[in-house]
Amino acid sequence: xxxxxxxxxxxxxxxxxxxxxxxxxxxxxxxxxxxxxxxxxxxxxxxxxxxxxxxxxxxxxxxxxxxxxxxxxxxxxxxxxxxxxxxxxxxxxxxxxxxxxxxxxxxxxxxxxxxxxxxxxxxxxxxxxxxxxxxxxxxxxxxxxxxxxxxxxxxxxxxxxxxxxxxxxxxxxxxxxxxxxxxxxxxxxxxxxxxxxxxxxxxxxxxxxxxxxxxxxxxxxxxxxxxxxxxxxxxxxxxxxxxxxxxxxxxxxxxxxxxxxxxxxxxxxxxxxxxxxxxxxxxxxxxxxxxxxxxxxxxxxxxxxxxxxxxxxxxxxxxxxxxxxxxxxxxxxxxxxxxxxxxxxxxxxxxxxxxxxxxxxxxxxxxxxxxxxxxxxxxxxxxxxxxxxxxxxxxxxxxxxxxxxxxxxxxxxxxxxxxxxxxxxxxxxxxxxxxxxxxxxxxxxxxxxxxxxxxxxxxxxxxxxxxxxxxxxxxxxxxxxxxxxxxxxxxxxxxxxxxxxxxxxxxxxxxxxxxxxxxxxxxxxxxxxxxxxxxxxxxxxxxxxxxxxxxxxxxxxxxxxxxxxxxxxxxxxxxxxxxxxxxxxxxxxxxxxxxxxxxxxxxxxxxxxxxxxxxxxxxxxxxxxxxxxxxxxxxxxxxxxxxxxxxxxxxxxxxxxxxxxxxxxxxxxxxxxxxxxxxxxxxxxxxxxxxxxxxxxxxxxxxxxxxxxxxxxxxxxxxxxxxxxxxxxxxxxxxxxxxxxxxxxxxxxxxxxxxxxxxxxxxxxxxxxxxxxxxxxxxxxxxxxxxxxxxxxxxxxxxxxxxxxxxxxxxxxxxxxxxxxxxxxxxxxxxxxxxxxxxx
Length: 840
What we know:
mainly beta, 22-stranded antiparallel β-barrel, 53% strand, single chain, 840 residues, disordered N terminus, 4 helices, 3% helix, six-stranded mixed β-sheet
């Protein structure tokens, strides 16, 4: 096996192809947890050693241990053992350097980061992700809809470090590749049904039909339901943390006998109804804010400002409001209107491979995809501003409004076409490709208040405002909303790339490559703060509004030197680059633009097997320098009784430093038992960012510290997998237990405040492959649990609710009239259930 041979073509397929290894497999910087399963004989040698993890591309096979890239593969068995139904189930740390979190409290969109490349808000149309998300080789332009139910997967691949050469833009931190199982052409399938706590139930059906005239068909269908984690006291309204997912996928493989062609066409559709996690009030005025000199309340300080005076009053919480920062609330203190958000995703993909000659394979990946999101987020109730001043002016006829109902919709369509040529000539292995991407996105948002409170004979009386005109003459119903903001963006991307590996000797392999990318982005802010700019050019000019019309060009090179020191020791050194496109923030009144950011990475790695291949130790260390880091300043701005989510994205000067080490160990001490452990250390440092504050014509520069969100300094995991054969018919008792730790980390760029550390355990016990009669059917029965010990932790903590408001009229005077306390979101509680699967 050659160290460098498999990476070029493997990545062109969207990542490595894992064969017959049923654990969490990892390349450099991540080890293979080769838990035995149905393919034991192929996964492990007859002596009980750890088996090879095979990657294949262009009709070549390469051991993943001999592939010079840091890659982890969560295969089908690991997905089953961890009861992973959606990508959010990977938020507990199944891959230590991979971080998954919701955007705000919402399940509708996921923030995904690798190695400290994590955007706070890629939720807006003109903003890009820092990690590329792919499904069957197709790039997904939006983070919306990523939490849909997963279909029948071969594996989930985590490619760590910049992938700018072969994957392109927006892959600074790496790429997450979801690979579906292809049709087999032989009749077979499986049916799964399960029930769990919180009223949960799930089912899936997967059927392969026999090949007919060179065509093979596979059909997948899924259903996943879970009741709310936090109940809503308001009758007839949805609770929080609920989901109801359904989806289907059909795939056709054409493999003509007379031609060396494989053509895969698939169509998929998924609908996900969900509600956000409950946003709890974690504390009350934790910074001791009082009116007067700001210096007298040193902790009551909004970063990036130069306040000298604080005005206003920190008002008490409304009657009945619960302050709880140690455990998740299972019933909300105040009932509010809450409808399910609805995400709809769909796609059409055609993947063609033609072996034109011994030295070349031609490929084409053509895809149309889209997502529609209707968001209903009323998770804060009286725990978020605007804070009510409960006085006699709050009457039944004119109640004081609260509970900001965040309503938004997004529509996205994308088309992509990729052409590839992959092959070998003599000692050279090569990849070349062309890529085209076209995306159109529109969105809008409204934030009416849904609840009111009145003081009647000295007693607070809660009311539900009219859903059409109860919030300043507007409401939450479609057709009754006052749209706060709306935007439209069109993005086009063109790229050409190539990569060549020179196999100088059987031990030494040198790879060089590069990618040229041209990105064009045009965007308009149609409405801001309720003003339609096209109808009111004076207001647009006064806001400093400028449409986005930008183009960026990049050349991203890479180089790798790989050396096979022995059959069991493989070393490499790699230089790689990547970039994330620029854009504009639709959450600002001027549609403030920001530039791209670029990253350079230097990495060394070692992959080793020892103790007669009964143990495996992989280590990777890297240095990444990021230029023009996109950082976010997020706050709520108040205009009367209305509030607006304001987010400004700027480019930090200087170089952001990201340094890391990844270590993974797998040991198979006896037949049937596999022990695995992983660790990721990630150091991040953004240089101080000068913020200019202008007061009465005079300017003051405030140096502000920013942070990289959802990136723990230390993260680790471990797993135990044990298979015990029962009888001689292939039945096994399978045991799985994994534990995952992450150190506390920030959840917002501009605040030093951290969320909580976490330690989560998951487990599963299964009796597998129980023979059912003479037809070859087999039954597997399992009992699973996630968050086995029911640990509570805050994964997202927002301190902006406990600090002075953002400047509106004065740069030296800060208002504390809307100070309440930190609010945040807790993780999922313990979930458990029983499942049965029949394979035929």
